[in-house]
mannose-6-phosphate isomerase ([Mycobacterium] vasticus), 420 residues
Amino acid sequence: MDHLRGAIRTYAWGSRTAIAEFTGRPVPAAHPEAELWLGAHPGDPARLETGDGEVSLLDVLAADPEGQLGAVALARFGDRLPMLVKVLAADEPLSLQAHPSTAQALEGYQREERLGVPVTSPIRNYRDTSHKPELLVALAPFEALAGFRPVARTIELLRALSVSDLDPFIDLLAGPDGVLAEDGQTDADGLRALFTTWITAPQPDLDVLVPAVLEGAIHYLSSGPAEFAAEARTVLELGERYPGDAGVLAALLLNRISLAPGEAIFVSAGNLHTYLHGVGLEVMANSDNVLRGGLTPKHVDVPELLRVLDFTPTTEEELRPKTRVEGPELIYATPAEEFAVSQVTLDGDYLGHEVDAPSRHCDGQGPQILLCTRGSVTVHAKSGSLTLQRGESAWVSSDDGPIRLLAQKPASLYRATIGL
Ligand SMILES: [Zn+2]
């Protein structure tokens, strides 16, 4: 077990304060810091602070895959860490995006290989053969758009904006007779028709429709307390940044989600989403497969996006994973084999003595990444102990568990393990 020093990624949408403050470095940072990667991604592996200096986690895994990952994970995923853990700090919205299923990723990767698109090319969609399910847990208030909202509610929102230019599009959702179909498949067909119309619309059409929607949103917000205030404000914010972008219209179709610290959403294959603002812990399968749908200067491959999107409407409640409590641990129930996440809260009766914290996956083995988010926690493993302060993380190899935890004052840490 060693302290794990994450790799900081600077992107324009990041924060000059959040990650620097969290990790105890001078504020403001020199560049907007968007992500802190705690994993063994070949592009930017985290480093272990060992007695002999810093070592890349990638090299540590290569030297002793079975001891680090355990036999169960090794048999399923080979000698690489299948998950990537990130602290994400968004001061500005990210691009609208979706991730493929395993079958889509494999097919897409092979297709792009056959076509000879270099894996590093900016127009490459599939950089590996993995799906990329992701869990986002808010560490501070977090704002997101995710999943197509149930159609009846979207029609209410579009009507509330009172934009006559939207009428033909409302008809696409409501059906030809203006009567909303009962069955979900028809709703998905309507969403597919509408989204496809918008995302493929000629630019001159968007240059009329997007400003009309923004006008409608301004008028809607100025006429008193409004049911869809958060949705309207988000559309205005996105429209200001990306005038004439079809992604601004697409944002009208997605659930507008506000997460309090500790609350989470699980994003499965085909889910159109974007993170708007906030600090969160993001745990995902170790993949770079992203199909963008706008709100970005980067490459947008519309046909490929349409191929992977899941237009089945979903409620915010369905996106929030169920949780269960075992001792001091709150476990987020997610279906991915690549990762599992829990939050350990040490307070009350759990203070002042060592608390068992067995891993609940990989037959009690498997590696663990720990991230302290409040207070100070001493972690005891087979090889010794270390103390994590807020913002610090640790790598516990498979053969170094199970761990016990000790805190004298209220403390919290997140634990990511493989989900098998
Ligand atoms: Zn994503």
About this structure: The first strand starts at residue 2 and ends at 5. The two ends are 21 Å apart (CA to CA). Residues 328-417 form a domain with the Jelly Rolls fold (CATH 2.60.120.10).
